[in-house]
Design brief:
about 190 residues; about 80% helix
C-alpha cells in the first residue's frame, strides 16, 4: 500500500484534498488582498509626503472653504489651488480604494475574520482624517488641527501597512501549507 493512499484513507484526513484545493484559492485571495493593500499603503505614503508639501508651498489655505474650493468642485486653477485641490482629490481616491477593500473584506467570511477589525479601524481613521482635514481648513491651519491631521494620517498608514504585511504572511503560509499537502498527495 502506498503512503498517499494510506494518508487519504485515514478517517481523520478525509476531505484533505478538497481542503488543499480550497487552500490554494485562499492563498490566491490573500495574495490579491496583499497586492491591493500594499498598493494602498504606497499611495498613502505618497499622500503623507504630499500633505506637508501642500503646506510648505503655502497652498494650505488656497481653498478657503471645505469640501469645495470657492464653492466649486472644479475651481479656476493656479498653482496653489491645484496643490490643495489635488491633495483633496488624491485623498478621495485613496478613500474609494479603502472603501472597496473594506466591502470586499466584510463580504468574505475569511477576510472578515482576518482583517475586519483592522479595516474597521481604518474606516474610523479615514472618517477622522476627513474631519481633521476640514478642521485644518476651517480653522485656518491651526497648529493643533494640522498636527492631529498628520498624526492621524500616520496612524492610518500604519494600520493599512499592518494589513498589507499580515496578508502577505497569510498568503505565504497558505501557499506553503498547500505545497506540503500537494507533496504528501503525490507520494
Amino acid at each position: 500500500m502506498q503512503f498517499s493512499s494510506m494518508v487519504f484513507q485515514n478517517p481523520f484526513l478525509e476531505g484533505f484534498q478538497e481542503r488543499m484545493n480550497s487552500n490554494s484559492d485562499i492563498s490566491s485571495k490573500f495574495r490579491l488582498f496583499y497586492k491591493i493593500s500594499l498598493f494602498l499603503s504606497v499611495l498613502i505614503f505618497f499622500n503623507l509626503l504630499y500633505g506637508p508639501l501642500v503646506r510648505a508651498t503655502g497652498s494650505g489655505l488656497a481653498c478657503p472653504d471645505w469640501p469645495f474650493c470657492f464653492g466649486k468642485i472644479f475651481p479656476t486653477f493656479d498653482f496653489q489651488i491645484f496643490m490643495e485641490v489635488s491633495h483633496r482629490y488624491y485623498s478621495g481616491f485613496l478613500g474609494l480604494i479603502l472603501l472597496g477593500l473594506t466591502v470586499w473584506t466584510f463580504t468574505d467570511q475569511i477576510l472578515r475574520k482576518e482583517f475586519g477589525i483592522y479595516l474597521g479601524l481604518a474606516i474610523f481613521l479615514l472618517i477622522s482624517q476627513i474631519n481633521l482635514g476640514r478642521l485644518t481648513v476651517t480653522l485656518k491651519l491651526d497648529p493643533t488641527s494640522v498636527n492631529l491631521h498628520l498624526l492621524n494620517a500616520i496612524a492610518f498608514f500604519l494600520v493599512i501597512l499592518t494589513v498589507s504585511i499580515d496578508s502577505r504572511e497569510k498568503a505565504l503560509y497558505q501557499k506553503k501549507f498547500y505545497q506540503i499537502g500537494f507533496f504528501i498527495q503525490k507520494r
